[in-house]
Here is the input.
Amino acid sequence: MSSSDCIFCKIVSGRVPCNKIYEDEQVLAFLDVRPVSDGHTLVVPKAHFEKLHQCPQEVLSSISSCLGKIVQAVVAAAGAAGYNVLCNNGRAAGQLVDHVHFHIIPRNEGDNVFTHWPAYEYESGRADAIAEKICARL
Ligand code: 5GP
Ligand code: ZN
Here is the structure.
């Protein structure tokens, strides 16, 4: 499955160049063209799916089976002290390319890549109610 106007499908098919990091039958990894840190890498399924929850189990399995290996190489090459693995889904969550992808972002202390994590605390009873609501939909 591919989408003719999808930039990541074009990269997968070789119509748009990339700095390739890893490839197997189902998965391609390449450097992000506008990194937030050196070595910032994108891992994508070769098949076109917009969001994570729309991917069949075998697609998610193929990504998870190579993700750790790719992370290890990216982080070692960057000489980073840590990393984030991110998957933005939907415009509200910052997804700009509608072909599911995992960002691997090498991190170092004080790098200012993400400076704000807007954590708060649940009011009494709210966590139980939310957990129940989620579980009912599984
Ligand atoms: P999103 O915001 O959808 O999670 O992230 C999409 C990412 O794709 C961005 O970080 C952006 O820099 C990257 N990107 C967009 N177009 C291209 C491209 O043509 N080549 C590469 N290598 N990365 C791209
Ligand atoms: Zn695509």
Observations:
- The chain has one domain: 7-136.
